[in-house]
Amino acid sequence: MKKILVPIDGTERSMHSLDFIKEIYRPEDVEIEIINVKELVFVDGIDMGDEIKASSEFGKQLLERARQKLSGYEVNLYFTFGYAGDEIIRKSQEDNIDIIVMTKSTKKGLTRLIGSCTSYVLRNANCIVMIVPE
């Protein structure tokens, strides 16, 4: 059984990774980890409690929506705060992930072609990274 990590960021574009997985893998062949990472900027003297709570609730709702898209598959959800690239790499190493499936960026330019986070993951992952076109 393959372990697949799918980072989602709340955009419809990132949800295409889930459709891609359904097209090429049968439910009995994969275990799927879906991760959502919220990056927070902390400023001295400002209470971030409300933003942290709202971000956490939004992330968990997003992950549940993703789970519903993969009905019939074994799916684990993971929400965290941090830098997306670092957290994706950390999670892939901790959980012995076989494949990371990400969508490409819609921006123009070489680095932006796949996105800075995807580029970071490609350079640092110890597993296969599949990039799904839009």
TrEMBL record:
Domain called UspA: residue spans: 1-133
Family: Belongs to the universal stress protein A family.
Protein name listed in UniProt: Universal stress protein
